[in-house]
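Handout, page 2. Input:
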Amino acid sequence: MPGRHTGLLFALPALFVLALLVAYPIVYTVILSVTDLGGSFNGTENFRNVLAARATPRAFQNTLWWVGGSIVFQVVLGTATAILLNRDFFGRSTVRAIAVIPWVVPGIVAATTWAWMFHTEFGIINYMLTGPGIIDEPVGWLTGRHTVMPAMIAINVWKLFPFVAIMVLAGLQSIPKDLYEAARMDGATFWDEVRYITLPQVRPVIVAVTLLLVIWALNHITTIYAITRGGPANLTLITPIQIFRLGFESFQFNEAAALSVMFFMVAMVIVALYIRFLASEGEIGR
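Output:
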């Protein structure tokens, strides 16, 4: 007869591999954050050095704009796209397939393509705006103080809104059609259906997708690093890129580890607050 701990014994190999892949890197990063290059314990010196750097508050502020701006537009545009793709029209399957293209394009390819499109002199975006006379002269989208971060956010929104659309569209398929038929009999308009039926029914999906987007945005550096590398003048520098610079460009691995630990704690606080909010709203457990 199998014992009480038989299941645990079978799971031990998988738990051991998981510990090597997850727990060990985290522990080693924490050790690096409190030691110097020689391996000697130096307490919070690495943390103080990182916090004293001029780039740190700028990177944190940019990260908030990057994450917040990306997620808001990704969720709004993705949900709107899902609602439109859920309606019956000619060529719906083709349009659905086309809508997924931005998501399946590799990140580095998308970043390089958009960098050329936003180019001040040769970019098609400036050409399309100057041709009809919408703007008088080309705009330096990737060099202007007030345009470079919105441009990065726009690229990130274009890249990930199809994922939101697919997830929400899957949730829309589970809504009983009887609800819409009853609403139409009561004289509800399309916007009434969206407000009182569609959005409440797919809210759990939107909540789960938003959490994923938060985690991805906090760790995503491909778009910004491939196009601006955090510039110009640190206008697009976000915390993950600052960590990368410290570790693999300046070879300050201990300070990079210290910043990683702080960033990890901030990310965990954000996720914990979000989960607590969901629990208070009754979304978890549905």
